[in-house]
Amino acid sequence: MKTSISLLVGSTNPVKIAAARDAFAAVFKDTEILCRGISSPSGVADQPMTREDTRLGAINRARFCESQGGADYFIAMEGGVDCFEDGPATFAYVAIVHQDRLSVGRSAQLPLPPRVYHALQQGQELGHVMDALFNTVNVKHAGGAIGLLTANAATRGSSYTQALILALAPMLHPELYELSTC
What we know:
The protein has a domain at 3-108 and 155-172: Maf protein (Alpha-Beta Complex). It has 8 helices and 6 strands, in the order E-H-E-H-E-E-E-E-H-H-H-H-H-H. The protein has helices at residues 14-27, 51-68, 114-121, 126-134, 144-149, 156-167, 169-172, 174-177, and strands at residues 3-9, 31-37, 73-84, 87-98, 101-106, 110-111. The longest helix is centred in the first third of the chain and has 18 residues, at 51-68. The chain is globular. The chain starts with a strand and ends in a 5-residue tail after the last helix. The mean pLDDT is 94.
């Protein structure tokens, strides 16, 4: 009989739900992945503008899911932006809670055009800015800014999927991460 794993994702965005399902299916082969999303508060701005807020938003969403119960894993993804040494970029933090353990990871970062970052500093959300710039509709529920700026060689979903797979490592080998400190 095929085993199953249930996931509760802190979002109703189909891209995030699919990314969680894809990540777990890649890691837990021959396992049925039962995945659903719920609206989950981040406790940060709709468009996080720092690494710290983006990370906190992912953790808050995952912990909210955990408080709802009813799943084996509680997952959240939070997209954000920040200005780094090499310029502005977008990225995501992911958080996974399983059996009272929290694992946090981060996606690769995508450099942002200065005019996009300026619009974000003025209070706009990345998805809306990209929709206006590329004449798209609701791109955050599709390939996202990543898809638009990479000719779909990478997408918002693929970025989340990779980050989640990597964040699963401490869950797969907890004995190796027991004293994990820097």
